[in-house]
Design goal:
By secondary structure, this protein is an all-beta fold. The chain has no helices and 29 strands.
């Protein structure tokens, strides 16, 4: 059966998508709060990152070592086609991927061997406050978001996922730290001077902003954004005036808003099941399931251990 792995307060909860119930909870090695989570289909492992990198066997829901202390890691992404994983750390003056910390710390990108969880390469000084890493599966390029709290604008950086060479960057005014990749476009949420939400569109070949999608009646964007190749929609979260958070669905070429879904909580994340047209959205100690075609809520799943980042694991990836 398909699973959704949900990072919680001190570990990861496992949801069975057939019964829409939590069937297991896997405690983090240091009882820390996992901040990033992704799935490696080659190893059938879920990789989690927080104060350490660790792995869960997605077939048995059991931890599988080793555990690698890193300091604070905010996000992790797997490139299964090339057997790589990447993690980003913000600019906090504690040892992260490296054992030293200078007086002016900068964000770091760690290149990770998904099997051993060893850090094979570190790019130091890769930004002032790295919050997100995303992989372009067609090219192997990785994109990091530098959401510097001391700057008005946010930088999106492109890196070669093999050599670590810098390929380019683009500055996105008033962006808030997320990115989704769909085709040869990147989608980055941002706000204008009046805090009205917009979705900046980046041409990934030229690393230039080529358009923006506005959203009416908002108090500002949230960082998470996702592209769903099955429904052909881009999903973004916004804080609506007079209401709670809304999940907004865009047509990715024209930017037409195709619908909205109310969401409970202010730090949601989203994982897409492209086979069954489902989106799994982390709320406050619950996961909301939404039909990505009709944009109708289906069920809310209680998750007592808390919710944060989450990843969908298809049943086909767990079977021989």
């Amino acid at each position: 059966m398909s699973r959704v792995f949900v990072a919680g307060d001190h570990g990861v909860s496992v949801i069975d998508t057939a019964t829409n119930t939590v069937v297991a909870t896997v405690g983090a090695p240091l009882r820390s709060h996992p901040l990033g989570i992704d799935f490696d289909p080659n190893l059938r492992r879920v990789l989690a990152a927080g104060l350490e990198l660790w792995a869960i066997d997605a077939s048995t829901n059991q931890p599988t070592g080793p555990d690698v202390p890193t300091g604070i890691v905010t996000n992790i992404a797997v490139d299964p086609a090339r057997g790589r994983a990447f993690a980003v750390a913000p600019s906090i003056c504690i040892p992260l991927f490296e054992s030293t910390c200078d007086a002016d710390p900068q964000g770091q990108i760690g290149f990770i061997n998904p099997e051993s969880l060893s850090v094979t390469k570190v790019i130091p000084g890769a930004g002032a406050n790295l919050t997100r890493v995303a992989v372009d599966f067609s090219t192997g390029t990785i994109y990091t978001v530098d959401d510097d709290p001391g700057a008005i604008d946010t930088a999106v950086w492109a890196w070669d996922g093999g050599s670590g060479a810098l390929l380019g960057h683009v500055t996105v005014p008033r962006a808030v730290g997320g990115i989704a990749i769909g085709g040869r476009r990147g989608y980055v949420p941002r706000a204008d001077h009046a805090l009205a939400t917009k979705l900046a569109v980046i041409d990934l070949d030229t690393m230039k902003e080529v358009g923006e999608f506005p959203i009416d009646d908002t108090r500002g964007p949230l960082a998470q954004v996702a592209f769903d190749p099955f429904s052909g929609k881009v999903f973004a979260f916004v804080a609506k005036v007079g209401r709670d958070v809304q999940l907004v669905a865009f047509e990715p070429v024209t930017g037409v808003v195709e619908g909205e879904v109310p969401v409970s909580g202010y730090f949601p994340d989203i994982a897409i099941d492209t086979r069954e047209a489902r989106a799994y959205i982390s709320e406050e100690r619950a996961v909301l399931v939404v039909d990505t075609l009709s944009l109708q809520p289906i069920v809310t799943i209680p998750v007592p251990e808390g919710t944060g980042a989450l990843v969908f694991v298809p049943a086909a990836a767990l079977s021989d």
